[in-house]
Specification:
Elements lengths: L3 E4 L2 E4 L5 E7 L6 H14 L3 E6 L2 H4 L22 H8 L6 H10 L3 E6 L2 H9 L5 E3 L7 H8 L5 E4 L5 H12 L6 E6 L14 H9 L3 E5 L5 H8 L4 E5 L17 H18 L11 H7 L2 E4 L14 E4 L10 H4 L20
Parallel strand pairs: 3-4, 3-10, 4-5, 6-7, 7-8, 8-9, 9-10
Antiparallel strand pairs: 1-2, 11-12
Helix pairs in contact: 1-10, 6-7, 9-10
């Protein structure tokens, strides 16, 4: 069982703070200034990594691919544009990547990118990406999996649109290279995703089936699923973000805007804090309420020094600064060492 992996200096897995990836994807709109601004936004939100995508339209889509229905939703693409034309229009110039990598490092976050062909894998490896992110649709592109795995760096593999058998074959392919540094991300390949389709419990299935860390690639427009995923053991998150959700493009409509990304990160961190440990105990923040809100034995009437105490002389009230109510049988029959006023809590020193 692999319970943790190492992404650079960052330990990721059970019991560790979740590794959060801000997915810039194609939301740079092929504008270098926007790409740099996205890195700044990601860093300001407190994520661990910013991620782009490395592809060329010629190796990704056939020119004859039919137009997808989702291209007509949310003003994603001009009428009549083919998937090939869309991807060609928004592909990230590869010569930008080293510059963007350095900017991310300067801002204290990791630079990641998803390779979509074999050349892209080698290109990203050249300038030292700490991990490879594999997109859901590439889980059956075994040559790509092997090419990335051979560098013996962590692989973060999304599993959207996949069966358990698909995931098993991908895991076997990667492990055959001797690379066991692997995180599986549960994912629903729907943009934006509906809550009724999320099936978050599948994360636990993946963890049990493959004995490795799991996470969640989140395509909702809400923090609810992320908080639930923390509770189900997610150790890695991926979330699309944009400077403006109203912009035209495939990923803008299902992405968070800058202020929302910061709140998303905070929601995950708050959920992690809330989980705490499995030990049931009084927390430090409860100490005052524990003492003043619980009950203890009090005098119901004035009890004079030398009086033998009976049950009728006692009551149970707040605060819990006296003898616990459970010890009442040990108090009855004892003699008061001093005068005890009615309503005064009784301590062992008084009897």
């Amino acid at each position: 069982m692999v319970s943790h992996i190492q992404i650079g200096e960052r330990r990721v897995g059970q019991g560790e703070s979740a590794y959060i990836i801000a997915e810039a994807g194609a939301n740079h709109d092929r504008d270098l200034k926007i790409a740099h601004r996205l890195i700044d936004v990601a860093a300001e939100a407190g994520v661990d990594a910013v991620k782009f995508q490395t592809y060329r339209a010629e190796t990704l889509y056939s020119r004859f691919t039919p137009r997808l229905k989702e291209m007509d939703e949310f003003n994603r693409s001009p009428a009549g544009e083919t998937p090939f034309e869309l991807i060609k229009r928004i592909e990230l110039p590869w010569e930008w990547q080293a510059e963007l990598h350095d900017h991310a490092v300067d801002r204290g976050i990791d630079f990641l990118s998803t390779p979509f062909d074999l050349e892209a894998v080698d290109e990203l490896a050249k300038f030292g990406v700490k991990a490879f992110k594999i997109a859901s649709y590439e889980i059956v592109y075994y040559a790509l999996l092997r090419a990335a795995a051979k560098y013996q760096r962590p692989l973060i593999v999304s599993t959207g649109n996949s069966s358990l058998a698909d995931v098993e074959l991908a895991v076997m392919t990667i492990r055959e290279t001797g690379n066991h540094q692997l995180i599986l991300l549960h994912c629903i390949s729907q943009y934006p995703a509906r809550f009724e389709d999320l099936n978050l419990r599948a994360m636990q299935t993946l963890a049990h089936a493959f004995a490795m860390p799991v996470g969640f690639s989140d395509h909702t427009l809400d923090n609810t699923a992320a908080v639930l995923a923390v509770g189900l053991g997610a150790c890695c998150f991926e979330k699309h973000f944009t400077l403006d959700r109203r912009r035209r493009g495939p990923d803008h409509p299902s992405a968070l805007e800058p202020d929302e990304l910061g709140k998303y990160v905070q929601a995950i961190r708050n959920a992690e804090k809330a989980l705490g440990s499995s030990v049931k105990q009084v927390q430090p923040s409860e100490e005052e309420n524990h003492r003043l809100g619980r009950r203890s034995l009090h005098a119901l009437v004035d009890i004079s020094e030398g009086t033998r105490i009976t049950a009728k002389m006692l009551t149970v009230k707040r605060p819990a600064l006296g003898i616990p109510p459970s010890q009442e049988p040990l108090v009855i029959g004892r003699v008061a060492k001093r005068d005890i006023r009615a309503d005064e809590w009784i301590t062992w020193e008084m009897i």
